[in-house]
């Protein structure tokens, strides 16, 4: 029995020694070469993945820039087409003859009670003739349930405020600022043109349509 235990102990010791040798013994030359090759291949694959990732990022950024540029060009083309259509209505061979009028009124909110306005004046009835005069605005609104009308002097908050001078052959844009009193709900705005010769012209616009965002390409 003692001999059997000794033999079993020696066998276990030999098996453990063989396992340690397999674990820590130096690799043969072909295994070392294979390891180096695998490490090199791994480094190449990692570099390739990094390159492709960067390339994809650059492509995405370039695509976004391209889409933005195309959108800007489309908007520019739409604007130019609108301009051409606008001009043809007044100077084209088939343009309908119209006298002095307000083609469009645009309002844009500023800081506090101030609003900036842009009025587009047109005429092509007397081609080549210069139209001159002055523009004023009036405003109708509601405050505390009562209808109120503000004059040009009140909107400018300047007694005897002169109208804006205009002088053009086919069209002109006039710009200025008006001030709304606190608590007033604007309803309608009236543009009055007083030419140097001829009768005055009045046109009204609802506040909602005048304050709406203008379409792209609107002169």
From TrEMBL:
InterPro entries: DUF6776. The keyword Coiled coil applies. Keywords: Coiled coil. Residues 28-55 form a coiled coil. Pfam families: DUF6776. It comes from the Bacteria. This is Uncharacterized protein. It comes from Cognatiluteimonas weifangensis.
